[in-house]
Amino acid sequence: MSITRDEARKVAHLARIAVPEAELPRLADQLNGILQFMEQLNEVDVDGVEPMTGVTPMRLKRREDVVTAGGMQDKILANAPDAREGFFAVPKVVE
After folding, report:
1. What architecture (CATH level 2) is domain 5-42?
2. Contact predicate 9/16, CB 8 Å
3. What predicted TM-score, i.e. pTM, was given to this entire model?
4. Structure letter (DSSP) for residue 47
5. pLDDT digits 0-9 by tens, 35-56
C-alpha cells in the first residue's frame, strides 16, 4: 500500500495538523515508511507465543480480597451535601 500526496493531505486534515503543501511529499514518504514497518511486523510468526505483562518475567502482585476498612458509612456520608437512607442523594439527570 502506498500513501499518495492527497491521502497525506487528508491524514493531516483529520489529525488537525497544518502541513504546508511543500511538505506533503515528505509526509507521504514518512507514512509509507510506517506502513512498511507494520507490514514487516505482520510477517512475524507469533503462534504459540504467550502474551507478556512486561519485558521481564514476573508475576503480578496479588492480595487477598478482604474488607479492610468497612463500617465507615456514617463518616463518609457526613461529608455529603445531601444523604438519604444511607446513600448519597443526587439530582435526577434522566427523565
Report:
1. Orthogonal Bundle (1.10)
2. no
3. 0.51
4. T
5. 999 999 989 998 988 887 777 7
